[in-house]
Amino acid sequence: MVINVFLFFFRMPKKYSGETLAQTVGSVRRGHLTIAQASREYGVPRMTVSDHVKKPRMRTTTGPPRQLSDEDTRALIDFALYCARQRFPLTSEASRAYI
User: Fold this and answer.
1) Which of 55, 84, 88, 94 lies 20 to 30 angstroms, CA to CA, from 12?
2) Domain residue spans in the chain?
3) 51, 58 in Cβ contact below 8 A?
4) What is the pTM of this model?
């Protein structure tokens, strides 16, 4: 019981990258390896591989979806820096108005 609670609250960090996960799922979908074989070969947990093979639209990122694209984020940062150079810093309320 104590071990299960510990594992629930304190998970070990991932030891694989998103690219490795994509390669693992790809090899299973192409039929080169089974889920268990791919899990052992690539070092990705078996249930993670299984989930991603069976639910292809599963999100791989954590947290809420991004509100701004990379281009919009860069533009907002540039504008905030411009305002700071003009001695008119951009407040958090003003920056939210641009989102």
Assistant:
1) 55
2) 16-58, 66-99
3) yes
4) 0.49
Q: What is the DSSP letter of 32?
A: S
Distance separating alpha carbons of residues 61 and 99, to the nearest angstrom: 22
CA dist 15 and 31 (Å) reads 24
CB under 8 A, 24+ apart: contacts of 35-44: 42/16, 43/15, 43/16, 44/16, 44/20
Tokens 């090899």 — which residue? 27
Does domain 16-58 fall under CATH 3.10.129.10? My reply is no
Residue environment code for 38-70, b if the CB has 16+ CB neighbours within 10 A, otherwise e? bbeebebeeebbbebbeeeeeeeeeeeeeeeee
Residue-wise pLDDT tens for the chain (99 aa)? 445 555 555 666 778 888 898 899 999 999 999 999 999 999 999 998 998 898 877 666 667 777 888 898 898 889 889 988 999 888 888 888 877
Q: Which DSSP letter does residue 10 get?
A: S
